[in-house]
Amino acid sequence: MPEDFHAVKAAHAALFPIDYDDAFFHKATNGLDRIWSCAAFAAGPYAEEQLVGFITAKTVFLHECEVSDRQHMGLDRQHMGLLSPVVDHDTSLYILTLGVLEGFRGRGIASSLIQAACQRACETRCRALFLHVITYNTQAMGLYSMQGFACVARLSRFYFISTGRQPDPNTQVYDAYLYVQYVGGAAGLATPWDVLSLALSPVRSALARIHSCVPGFCSMTNAALERVDAITVAEAVRADNKEIAVVDVRNSEEFSSGHVKGALNLDSTSFSDNSLIDKLVDQLQSKSQVVVHCAKSLQRGPQSAAALKQRLQELGINKQVLVMDGGFEKFGELYGSDSSVVEGGAAPKLAAAAAAAAAAGVPSEEH
Asked: What is the pTM for the complete model shown?
């Protein structure tokens, strides 16, 4: 509810190594953007209700999910066959944030909140629940495993955190695990509320903006990255601005079907290899700004931009790295027939280097 704004904001600040803006909390407490949530309350010292735990989750259509997430969950075209176009408009429930304040843990609150999400997924006929867990959060991994979630993939360089509140302030890039539970499959048993007298209260909520793999905040990557819109990029391309480079991190097949004029192409999977990033950096020597994008700039683009930014910092090179909002899908929607800013076929690429790395055994999983 709107009156929970400050409590929700304070809880997030206490629990997460990232700073959320007020727009996030406004939407999180006003029932926007297909977000469902529940909060756990306990009696405070003066008999007032105190928020002690919460879960937020977004209902997403499968076609909104990153291709790699669908593949790992077995809900892509390869696994679903002819049914895939049909289930594109089916939904899943993506768990966005889950937290219990210190002093109230070990009482079954988190488990009960997860069970409430499972019930919500069943009631709304979602195909699955899924989420990402940063690799150092072993408590969360154990919790979700106990609740019937399966870990189906490790996603490299998924999170970019620069607040200094991460376990190692010198490390900003972290991998993530993808967890999934299929509706109708085996689920964990609900944990009783135990000693604490709590209530599950619907806190109608939503999220401020897309941060990664699905609409509604999937990762922390974008929080530390600047954004630029497609119109600004198009104007720079038309003006033949020599200070700006566009890096398209889609795969070669996607790139060849159409891309921003003059863009470089380095598959997002190559950003786990510093030697390949360094080859890209060599091509960016004369540029002061680098615009990175994928298909939608939800996951692959922000992840790759974070990896590039991190590598530039390690090399002591000062360049502005931005993510193009909406990715090439938005750019193509606006300028698909404009040959002054869009072209097909070959463009300056690093595909050969990426292919050589793949042959040498560098992981080629798409994120």
From this structure: 0.52
